[in-house]
Structures are given as structure tokens and as C-alpha cells.
Design goal:
4 copies of one chain form a homotetramer. By secondary structure, chain A is mostly helical. Chain A folds into 2 domains: 66 residues, Arc Repressor Mutant, subunit A (Orthogonal Bundle); 141 residues, Tetracycline Repressor, domain 2 (Orthogonal Bundle). The first copy, chain A, is 70% helix and 0% strand. In chain A, helix 7 runs antiparallel to helix 11. The longest helix of chain A has 28 residues. The radius of gyration of chain A is 21 Å and the shape is elongated. At the A-B interface, helix 7, helix 8, helix 9, helix 10 and helix 11 of A face helix 8, helix 9, helix 10, helix 11 and helix 12 of B. Chain B binds a DNA duplex (21 and 21 nucleotides) through helix 2 and helix 4.
DNA sequence: GATGAATGAGGATTCATTCAT
DNA sequence: CATGAATGAATCCTCATTCAT
């Protein structure tokens, strides 16, 4: 929690429990708010609920956040960790094939982002983008752009190494993004979009998607002779 | 507009202007409501706004819909036309290859659903599913299930004809669904998820997705020799 | 329903049924309004309900009565028949003893007023007097004053004839009025004030009251000598 | 005020001004509500008015009472103090004659109930019983039944001691109840039922009623022998 | 006249926000 | 700092009343 970091590292070694709690307050509120905003949406979440879930009183919430809207923005900003530089480094250091890299990235995205509560902010942004244009722009800049750039890099790497065929990357990035977004939204929308019975396994979902992206679903034998392949 | 039918069929040819308006009112209100709900979300849309956009007064809205919530439900129901049987018929009559069928279906989905305002309710449902569990269930049953069944059919057809390789359909259906859902959400979420500059062309987006689903993005020549293919 | 009316009665040369109904409209509305006002109170009665019960449309009600308030006033005025002159005549012509007269009057009041729907307006006035001061004044003048005067006459007659002992009539009138008002209110207030099980018989209630007013409930021994007791 | 008790008993002597107000709020609101409901009826009383009279804002009212209807119910419940056991004790301890007991009871009822604002709820119940059937039942059980039982006891005592003549108590109770209900209603209905000029003196009204109940209004000659007459 | 669709003022209720303690 | 009582703007919804047909 980056915000909490601002308050850490005080000098005392005997930090009283209460002190510690005080420092943790903003983080606890952001935590509670994230859960509730994701679950019920911005408007349907009451400030008092957030406070209650964080174990403080209504008034305290407004001690740390000027308004519910500011709380929302803080929740989004807080959970947009700039993990991209870290990822970029991994990407640059990767030594396997590009298909392997792609598979690695999507799986690691799932573990580090998709499966965590952080994925909830994506759902939040999709639901509230129109009501928070400035936040949407911020999100665009901090998450979407770097994320797309990362994927572009991977795809470009594959093309450069002759492992992927040439593509219009402006569209190809969505081959990777769409399945991830879909996965997130399914999980945060009461399972809408999913066939009810199967609460699909994310790992297998991703495996299926990766395989299809790389190889398509065309019949293996036929694939070489497919006329559609040539025209494409 | 199925709801309007309830009000049609008056025998008289002398239908007064007032009468004609009355018949049209529910539809006009649902239209206005769909626009606003999709644009701003359920909670952020005021009943009076909906009425105003439909060109009537606040009170009139409640003449046709018991509450804002009922209006919401009606909006969802209204826009779930049973287009599935029609599609099923087309599917059964289709004579081309399964890849062609898949391409045809996704393009025709775009034209008949994705590009229309009806697609807005999908976004609506994703945002509000948690707040309207009964509606979510209804949507599941009326839209998701039939939609998935349709896609299953197409894939099964391809497998049966040797045009697609064998797959676990429980996961494969999302190869088709995910890109469509993503496209819808992009367009109804202030372009979040999209690289800002390009307001991507849906046709080309779909073409790219279809091509990848069918053929993958593996390099043409290499694809046959790909080691990942074998292990996958 | 209303549609059929459009087709009926067209040809008849005799005073059409519709004509007669038209004349009856105000009365039917007042009837319906009385029932509803008594049952639910002024505010809780909706204009549309009154119209519906009278078998006409909302608009028609306002054709005959400028406002709901006017309707209320009309209901009260309509049901305050000046039966007092008639009663005064009976009183003057009465030849029995004053105790007999009193008993006769209370019983006849029950039959002519208490048991009829007209008694409902008394309840109405008690409930709404504060909200309709002008009506209250009107009611005072048209009903209360003449009514009290009548009772005063009876009591005075008894005193003059030595059948009643001298009393302060300003207070004695309520010996007669209170039981009647109570009876009415009990019947129009969901039985409040009544011991639940017994839906008390008005005739016997009145008999008990009359007997007590005349003879008191004092011990039998003492009252054995009372001549009035024997006749009662 | 029984409700306030729920909030009392704070141990601290440093009770802050805010705290003290909070304890008093429900009572103040109930007070204000009683006045207004009695004066104008339930529907004609606006929630904001009640709040204003209690010296708080609209919102505060709903902090203590879930809805206007709940406020109404609380008003009724609050003013039904279980004074009946207390009265029963007095009755059992009474040593005078039964006529004296009856007179004592009616006078003390006036002082303890009739003359207080609590009497207003009787008028309330009569006006709104049909709209609040559950409350009416509650009132029946909590007030009417015990009240009637008390009166029955008094009358039965008189009969047993040979001071009252035998009566059908099911009807005789109303000899006592009717005058009291009437008195209350007169005072809460803008004086309707009263001859305008005289704003009748309750004490004398009750004295007249008691005298009549005990002795009747029969001619002096007959009742000269009555022992009860002398003591009354 | 009669109708009932439309209106909009009015009132109940919610909840973000403030501030005295 | 923390609290939670108090506030009142905002919004849903009702229903008396109007008026085009």
C-alpha cells in the first residue's frame, strides 16, 4: 500500500499499537472502500459502510478524505501500482521464445493482478469512467498505455524474431488484452457472461486463450493447406 | 419493441394524437432510459432526466413504470429480443465452412447487436449485476445461456467436420465471447481499455480477432515446426 | 363498462338512461366520497378512488366539484339534513311522559341517524374539524346547535312537568349527547373503545343508557319507590 | 416518558451537552409529534413540522424514527403508560362507598389522563384506527381492555355491596366510558359537539355525569328517599 | 359532457458532509 | 485525533388538478 508508506518509518522502535493503527487508517479505509466500490458500485456504496468496515466512524473517513469522490479517486490511484517498470525489466531479461514469453506474461499477470483485489479497480473504472472523466484519463495514462506498450513489445519481439507473423499491432494488442479484461469482469459481475454451472478455472481459461492466440483453433493437419490462411 | 405491442392493435383508424402518444410513451421512455443508464449508470441517472429526454414530465414516467427500479428492469427486458431462434436458423442453414460461419456470425453479431444501443445493456448488467441479483439471473438465462449455446454449436460443427481441432468447449466458447464483450465495454466506458488515439475500427478489430482465433498468430512457416505447439 | 354506454340508449325516445345517470352523478360521487372519507379519512382518500367507486373517471369528479376540499364540504353539507324541524314537531305533539319522550327520541335518533351512513359525517367532523374550521362552524350551526336545542326542550319539558328534577341544562344536555356520539364513533373507528368480543347491540346500549339517565344505577332498595322506574 | 428511559442512566457526570440532547431527542420529537398529530391528523402533519417544533432538522427526525408511520406508532406506544396496575391498587385499597369510588375514579381520570396531552392519542386512534389496524389492535389490548376491566371491577364491587343494582356489565361499562370519551373528543375537535358559547368546565361536566349515573335525573320527589343522593 | 393522459407542486426519505464535544 | 449527532441538499414518488381529445 503505497500511501501507508508515506507514514511508515517513523523513528520509534516502541510504536504503540494505537499509533500503528492511526498510521494504518488510510490504508484500511482504502481497502474497505475498494471492496465495497467493486462490489456495489460507487453510488450504491455509503460512506458509513466504508467507515464501518474499516472499523472507524463516519467522521474519521472524512478526516482522511475530503469527500467520497476523493476517496474513490484515492482508491483507484492507490491500486494502480506502477508495476510496469518491474515487468519491463523481466521482459527485457527473458530468454525463451516469444510464445513462451506471452504465456509467461499472461499467467504472471493473472497471479499478480488478475487474481488480486487490485483487479477490482478495472471493473470500477469500466463502470464509472463516464462519471469520473479525469480519473479515466489518469487510468488511461497510468495503466492502459503502459500495459499496451508492454504487450506491443512482446508482440514486436516475436515478429522481429520471426516467431510471430507480421501484424497490425494497433489491433493485435487486443488479442491479449480482451481475454484478460473479460476474465476480470466475469469475476466481478456476479458471474454474468459465464455459463452458470462452471465457475471456470482461470488457469485453464488463460491456457486456452494463450493456445488459441498462438495457434488458432484450426484443425492441425488442415491448417497448412487452409486457403483462408493464405488470404489473411 | 415488444412492450409497445401491448399497446398497439387498436382497431380504430381515427386514433387521436393523444392515443398515439400514449402507445409510444413506454418505448420512448425505455429509449431514453437506456441511453442514460448506459451513459451514467443506474444511480447517477435521475428519473426526471429520463422523463425530460423522453419529452415528458416526471410524473408521466411513473405513470408507466412503478419505480425507477422497475424502469431499469423494463429496459433490460425490452432489449432482450429473442433473436436467438432466428440466429439458430441461420446457423443451421449455413452451407460454407465453419471458419466462414464463425466469421459470419461475429460480423453479423456486430451489426445486429454490438453496434446498436442494445449492446449498452450488457455494460449495464455488468455494472449493476450485484445490485439486481434477480435481473442478473434473468439475463443469464435469457441472454448468456442461449448465446453460449449458439457459439457451442458453431464450434461443435467445426469439430465434427474436421475444420476445428478438438477442444474443451467449456473454455473455448470464451475465445469468441471475450472479444465481443470487450468490444462492447470499450465502447461504453469512455474508451477505457483502448489506446487513446485510435478509436479502433470494429470491423477490423473483429477481423483481427477472427483471424487469430482461427489461425493463431504464430509465424506461418514456423507454425508447423513450432515446439510449443507440440507440447501444448 | 364505459364503452358499452356509448352504444346503448342511442335510439330511445324515452329519457335516455344516460340522461338520468348524468343527473345522478353528483349524488353518486357524494355517496362514494362519504363512504371513503368516513372509512379512511380525508387525506387518505384519493380522488381517483372516489371517482372509481362512483363509476366515473377522475376527470368527471372535477367536473362537478372544484376540488377535493369542495367535495368534502359538499359531502358534509349534503348529509346534514335539517330534520330538526320535523323532530321539533314530533316533540311538540308528543303526549306521553318526558321519560318516555326521551327514550323515544334516543331510539328514533338511532334509527333515523345513528344507524345510517349519515352518522359517518359526525365522525368525519370530529376528525377533520381542525383542518376545516369553516365547515366545523357550519356543522356547529346546522347540527350541534339545533340538536342541543331539541334536547334542551325535552329536558325542560320534563322539569316543567315535574318529571325531571331541576338541572343545569348547559351540562345536562351532554347526558344525552355523549352516549350517542360515543355510539357513532365506536362504529366508525374499527371498534376501538369497545371490548373486542362484544359487537354491542345498539338497541340494548341505548336502553341501558336511557335507563341510567332516568333512574341512575343506585341500589334497587332505594329506587323501588321510584315511579319512573316502573314505567321504564 | 418510558422511551426516554432507554437512553438515560449514563453514569458520567460529565455528560456533554450533545449527549444530553441526544437522550432527550426522542422524547422531544414524540412530544412535538403528539401535539401535531392530535391537532391536524396524521396525514396533514408534515415530518418537517414535527422536527421544527422539536427544534431539530428534518433529517434528525429520521435519525430516531425510521419513518413517519413509525413515529406515529411510537407516539401511541409512548403515551400508553401502564397506569392501570397503579389504579387497580388504589381501587382495591379504597374504603368508601362504591358511589364515592366511582366519583373518585372519574375525577382522578380527568386529572391524570383526560386533562393531559395523553388524551390526545385517544382522539388520534379514533381518527386513524382504520389506517393502522395493527396499532388499533395494540391499543385495544393495552388500553381499552384494561380500562374496561377496571370499570367493571368498580361496578361489580358496588353490586356486590348492594350499592348498585344488578346490571349487565357488558353494557353498563359504557355508562362510564362514554362520557369520558366524549369529553376528550370535544376538547380535541375544535369544540365540535359543544354548544359554542360555553367552553364547558370539565369538573362540572364530570360531576353532572357522575350524579346522573348514580341517581338518574328522575324527579326529586321520587328520589328523596335515595340514600346515595345525600352522600353524592 | 366525459375521459384519462399529462402535469408538477408537495412531501417523505436518504446520505454525504460538518462540527461540537 | 476520533466521534457520531445533526444537517439539508438532493431525489424519488404521489396525487390533486388540468385539458386536449
Amino acid at each position: 500500500m503505497s500511501l501507508s508508506k508515506l507514514f511508515c518509518d517513523k523513528t520509534s522502535g516502541v510504536a504503540a499499537k494505537r499509533e500503528r493503527r492511526k498510521e494504518a487508517r488510510p490504508g484500511e479505509l482504502l481497502d474497505a472502500a475498494l471492496d465495497l466500490f467493486v462490489e456495489k458500485g460507487f453510488a450504491a456504496t455509503r460512506a458509513e459502510e466504508v467507515a464501518a468496515r474499516a472499523g472507524v466512524s463516519k467522521g474519521t473517513l472524512f478526516l482522511y478524505f475530503q469527500s467520497k469522490e476523493e476517496l474513490f479517486k484515492a482508491v483507484v490511484r492507490e491500486n494502480i501500482s506502477g508495476r510496469f517498470t518491474e515487468w519491463r525489466a523481466e521482459l527485457d531479461a527473458f530468454e525463451g521464445t516469444s510464445p513462451e514469453l506471452l504465456a509467461y506474461c499472461m499467467n504472471s499477470w493473472w497471479e499478480r493482478v488478475g487474481a488480486t483485489r487490485a483487479s477490482g479497480i478495472t471493473k470500477l473504472m469500466m463502470s464509472e469512467a463516464k462519471n469520473f472523466p479525469d480519473l479515466a484519463a489518469f487510468y488511461q495514462q497510468e495503466v492502459i498505455q503502459p500495459g499496451q506498450a508492454l504487450i506491443r513489445c512482446i508482440l514486436q519481439r516475436g515478429i522481429d524474431r520471426g516467431e510471430f507473423r507480421p501484424m497490425d499491432l494497433n489491433y493485435a494488442v487486443y488479442l491479449v488484452i480482451a481475454p484478460m479484461i473479460f476474465l476480470i469482469l466475469s469475476r466481478h459481475s456476479a458471474g454474468i457472461c459465464l455459463s452458470k454451472e462452471a465457475d471456470l478455472d482461470p488457469k485453464q481459461y488463460i491456457a486456452t486463450q494463450v493456445d488459441a492466440i498462438l495457434n488458432g483453433i484450426g484443425a492441425p493437419a488442415a491448417s497448412a493447406a487452409q486457403p483462408t490462411r493464405k488470404t489473411a
